[in-house]
Amino acid sequence: MTDTATAAATLVGGGDQPDLYLGGRWVAPHSTTRIDVFSPATGEQVGSVPNGDATDVDTAVAKGRRAFESGVWRAKTPAQRAAVLRRAAELINERSADITGLISAEMGASPTDVATLQQLPGTGVLSGYADAAEAYPWEEKRTGLFGETLVVREPIGVVGAIIAWNVPLFLICNKLGPALAAGCSIVLKPAPETPLDANLLAEIFTEAGVPAGVLSVVTGGLEAGQALVEHPDVDKITFTGSTAAGRIIAARCGDLLKRCSLEMGGKSAAIVLDDVDLPSNIHMLVFSGLLNNGQACVAQTRVLVPRSRHDEIVAAMVETAKTFTPGVPGDPDAKLGPIITDKQRSKVEDYIATGKAEGATAVLDGGRPDGLDSGHFVAPTIFTGVTNDMTIAREEIFGPVISVIAYDTVDEAIAIANDSDYGLAGSVWTSDIARGVEIAKQVRTGTYGINWYAIDPASPFGGYKNSGIGRENGREGLESYLEHKSILMPMGYSSGN
């Protein structure tokens, strides 16, 4: 075993875990099968968890339903729930070494990437939801046609959360945060590729003050996910993952009239304007396309550049991308981790081959780096000569592949950016901020950045078109876990009397 594998195996709630964390305690699973977890950086097994089945999901949901109906959590004040979220954020920071060890083991991310792409935004959304809960108008008086009405907001009930593998710490916080702030119970199903950190985080939330029964984690695959979506006592599904899986979940939730929110894929465009200060922005521009090794739904993988500065910008992109060297988590020189599985790496390589076959030019052709044969590594690839109808410009690759598309006018660039099935993120790169804002308003996407891209915990995050339904973060994210109830007062009644 490597040091990473040994550390993962010895952590409480991680490594080789025989049980499921259901309702705040470890419970022997009904399922007799297991999921073995392998490091994509080394190929070594770093852990094993139960492959939860429908019976295990039913146990978790039953615990969540009993806790919800008892009022043990939903009856607490918003301020009390907010305090638990803030304490959970503090504990995550205190246990960052343990959490980073697990995440580095299961997904190959470097400690720096875990800190910047997962821990900082993860604790940020917990604090953001705590703030939203305290500021939210849980009760409101309105006067209408029939006099006074009291509008109250109540937790939706039991939530089923299904997440992807690419940034597990952040995704877990961004599901637990709003559900718990609203007063819901929640059953979390992490991705089978990255289940280890979910158990440790659940223990942390329990330590922070989440009562027994409110929070469960069912590690598992397709059966567990389907059981969670189908369960009659689950009131809402929140999902982060592929558009293909999201379509299936949305269709089934529609059949069941079950509430759902979906955060899915993207094919975001970075519009580089002719007045861009290239030396000041080139690193962030390339990073926005390669963050998390391109395994990010918000990655700016279509870079739209003015034809007048095309060669200059491409040359700077290539030189910068060369500094994004792949490596294992313990390598201080590594800037990119591995692709999550060998199957996904083959998919990325197929896209690169397709790009070449359709006429694009790989001005940087990364390929498989030398000396990293035991992991699933791919170095950055940059294509030029890309047109927006090519496969690599239209489909989400989820790997370190950037497509450069030339344009002649800003209106053409906006049209190219909007010519996509997705609408999750985007950015504009300019020395004129007012001009950037005007362009941002014309691009049909849920989030947008000027001279960088990030997800702000206090602001709504979500997508247009095939990128999803609903919003996360801020007041809008909290509201998606609430029901609105109108209580009509008697005719002529006034609370002011």
From TrEMBL:
Tell me which residues this entry annotates as catalytic. Answer: 263
What keywords were assigned to this record? Oxidoreductase
Q: What is its EC number?
A: 1.2.1.3
Enzyme class (EC, first level):
oxidoreductase
Q: Which residues form the Aldehyde dehydrogenase domain?
A: 26-487
**The keyword Oxidoreductase appears for this protein:** yes
Claim: Oxidoreductase is one of the keywords in the record? yes
List the catalysed reactions.
an aldehyde + NAD(+) + H2O = a carboxylate + NADH + 2 H(+)
InterPro entries in alphabetical order: Ald_DH/histidinol_DH, Ald_DH_C, Ald_DH_CS_CYS, Ald_DH_CS_GLU, Ald_DH_N, Aldehyde_DH_dom
Q: Which family does it belong to?
A: Belongs to the aldehyde dehydrogenase family.
Q: What is this protein called?
A: aldehyde dehydrogenase (NAD(+))
Q: Which organism is it from?
A: Gordonia defluvii
* Higher taxonomy: Bacteria, Bacillati, Actinomycetota, Actinomycetes, Mycobacteriales
